[in-house]
Inverse folding.
């Protein structure tokens, strides 16, 4: 017979009332339910190599709480809860300049890259997490400073005031201009250009009459050379929840094992401050 007990543990130097469910067997061996849950490998239904697995680091440490949701699922919920709030898709992206000095600026998050074919390297190499696309789309101008700074990657910070959650999403940054020969990325770039509102399109165009980036018939003109799709391909996500029981979770993308070097997967663990 099994019985359930609950315990508390400190978080951010405070004891929280967040409960950890544990299972006590008749032989008094204590197994965290969360360990049981997380040790079940999640196989994706469409087999895009994005199953989350337990990292050995997590397996070795039983003193963590239940975090059965990946950052990607958590983010989906945060976005849905904040959808109606103006500016809820404004994020900050930090980079380092050539001298290693930090630079940070606000940009608009414009959704996830969801048109990748399954055999695209970005898809097989971590572009999905829990069956959801996780490469993040933004746009920028070739003439801006950040263009020189993306080579070393960057970190996005996204704060959700409604739900008191912070995501710090780190990864490589990729700029896609008109000369990029990746067809999927070109489609995504054109789509994003078409989805911008007229004033946003105008900000990329010069000349006296910009007409919202539309021709005489009202059709959207092709994107100019300086319009760049900016992609953040996440590798590491630090999630912090300050509402109620505070907790922090680290999700990390790992490269595939020897048999499957091209396949990557996400692990996740809860950490103390
Ligand atoms: C609310 C808001 C949204 C912005 N959105 C974008 C954006 O989507 N893309 C962008 O390149 N810059 C955007 N900017 C401007 C940037 O913050 C920044 O000033 C500009 O990109 C130049 O940055 P850089 O010199 O670091 O390249 C936005 C600024 C604000 C305040």
């Amino acid at each position: 017979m099994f019985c359930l007990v609950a315990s508390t543990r400190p978080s951010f130097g405070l004891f929280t009332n967040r409960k950890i469910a544990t299972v006590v067997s008749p032989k008094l061996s204590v197994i965290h339910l969360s360990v049981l849950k997380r040790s079940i490998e999640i196989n994706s239904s469409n087999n895009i190599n994005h199953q989350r697995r337990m990292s050995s680091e997590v397996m070795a440490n039983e003193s963590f709480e239940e975090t059965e949701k990946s950052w990607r699922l958590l983010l989906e919920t945060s976005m849905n809860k904040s959808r109606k709030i103006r500016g809820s898709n404004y994020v900050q992206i930090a980079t380092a300049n050539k001298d290693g000095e930090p630079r940070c600026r606000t940009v608009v998050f414009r959704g996830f890259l969801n048109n990748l074919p399954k055999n695209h390297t970005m898809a097989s190499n971590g572009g999905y997490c829990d069956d959801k696309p996780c490469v993040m789309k933004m746009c920028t101008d070739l003439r801006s400073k950040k263009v020189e700074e993306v080579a070393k990657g960057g970190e996005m910070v996204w704060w959700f005031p409604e739900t008191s959650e912070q995501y710090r999403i780190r990864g490589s940054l990729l700029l896609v201009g008109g000369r990029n020969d990746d067809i999927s990325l070109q489609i995504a770039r054109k789509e994003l250009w078409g989805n911008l509102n007229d004033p946003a399109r105008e900000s990329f165009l010069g000349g006296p009459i910009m007409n919202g980036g539309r021709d005489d018939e009202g059709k959207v003109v092709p994107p100019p050379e300086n319009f760049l799709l900016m992609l953040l391909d996440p590798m590491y996500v630090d999630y912090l929840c300050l509402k109620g029981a505070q907790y922090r979770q680290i999700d990390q993308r790992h490269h595939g094992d020897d048999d499957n070097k091209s396949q990557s997967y996400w692990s996740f663990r809860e950490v103390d401050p």
About this structure: Residues 183-195 form the longest helix (13 residues). Residues 1-66 have pLDDT under 50 and may be disordered. The pocket of flavin mononucleotide is lined by residues 90, 103, 105-108, 138-141, 144-146 (CB under 6 Å). The domain at 70-271 is CATH 2.30.110.10 (Pnp Oxidase; Chain A).
